[in-house]
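1st attempt posting a full record on here, be nice pls
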Amino acid sequence: MANNNSGYNRTTAWFIVGFIVLVTIGVIIAGAMSANSGAGSAAVNSNGFVSSTASAIVSTDHVLGNPNAKVSLIEYGDFECPACGEYQPLVQQVIQNMSSSILFVFRNYPLTSIHPFAMVSAQAAEAAGMLGGPAKYWAMHDLLYAKQSEWSLNTTLTPAQVLSQYFDGYAKSLGLDVTQFDADMSSSQVSSKIQNDIAGGDQALINHTPTFFVNLQQIPNPTSYAGFQTVLDQALSAAGSANATGTKK
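the predicted structure (as tokens):
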């Protein structure tokens, strides 16, 4: 009997220890989730969508539209991301139709762990802007998306080969000095801009591209132009500003 009781006591003790360990792990995980949700001012709505807050628009941001607009649309994107490429026509339509009412901002968020040319393409856009100003930045931005299937599919190439075989040609077609373009690609200014964008995206708890923010608040990705227009018109109405057609309410 003594041996049986001893075995029973040992089993009970191990069960209690195991239970305590599980409870402790649960508390740690809950604490970590709480800490992460607060890091980027995230909030969960009734549909379970986690909305976070982007950093304020600054002078180094790439912008299109009305600089005095009361409504902003920020996109964190990756030039190699297929979803970003698919969204590009919708974004262009929004800019074309609502540029008098909103300010559009594009920020880099290259997903380098899954897209081998994400960083070099971000560098190409930034270098074009550094060399030729906003007009050349946006021209390269649009060209990278328009020709995404051309330069992004051959993953046997290195980033340096993608630059020489594709991006140098794009730069030349935009009237940029290719030698200077290549030098600017590796400049500290270009690197700093991209890293600042990434840091802001991390702070905003971004986990996919593209990610969109209206007036710095993350929104679920609209699936159509009408979806974008509805969200932006609501923001314009709330701001007491112009509607999508530019007429006063």
